[in-house]
Design goal:
alpha+beta, Lipocalin, 183 residues, 9 strands, eight-stranded antiparallel beta barrel, 3 helices
């Protein structure tokens, strides 16, 4: 196989993993409903990653944030970033675009960090009154993020979200708290 073909195959496999495409043996989330209402203007801004199921593309990151910015075309710019190993480590970031493909399902977004490849961004829990927390998943049980508007989340809210995730079938024993020890 020539070098360009190998490069293309590696790129596609990496993008598939990053995009949250179904992985063989990973159940697809048929039984979990997304939230009914999302005001994208209220959803924009900085969210702190409180905890997540570990992913290869975010391994050893601390002070992880997702910043959403509403664009003129109605899509959302997504900036995910964190520091390698410690707040003094190298900044790792990636920028993408999110959009709502079906206005009747505002909690089911698509997000793309690479041209022609998109993945699901499903908002499955949201503080609809204050937009102070959210829980997001991808297409399968390999992806779960608990987000907050503040670097710390109160124990009651965190425990409620963990219980909800467990009730939906997530292996909550594998959820890792994201260090938010940032200046």
């Amino acid at each position: 196989m020539n070098r360009n073909v190998c490069y293309f195959v590696v790129l596609i496999l990496t993008a598939s993993l990053i995009s949250g495409c179904a992985i063989i043996g990973s159940p697809v989330l048929d039984n979990i409903q997304t939230v009914d209402q999302v005001d994208l203007e209220r959803y924009t801004g900085v969210w702190y990653e409180i905890a997540s199921l570990p992913t290869t593309f975010a391994r050893n990151l601390v002070c992880v944030t997702a910043t959403y910015t509403l664009m003129d075309d109605g899509k959302v710019q997504v900036l995910n970033q964190g520091y390698k190993g410690s707040p003094d480590g190298n900044l790792s970031s990636i920028t993408g675009t999110a959009w709502v493909p079906n206005p009747n399902e505002p909690g089911q977004l698509k997000v793309s960090f690479f041209p022609i490849i998109s993945s699901q961004y499903n908002i499955i829990a949201l503080d609809e009154e204050n937009y102070s927390y959210a829980m997001v998943t991808g297409k399968n049980y390999n992806f779960l993020w608990i987000l907050s508007r503040t670097p710390q989340m109160d124990t009651t809210t965190y425990d409620m979200l963990i219980q909800q995730a467990e009730d939906w079938g997530y292996d909550v024993a594998n959820i890792e708290v994201t260090p938010q020890i940032c200046p």
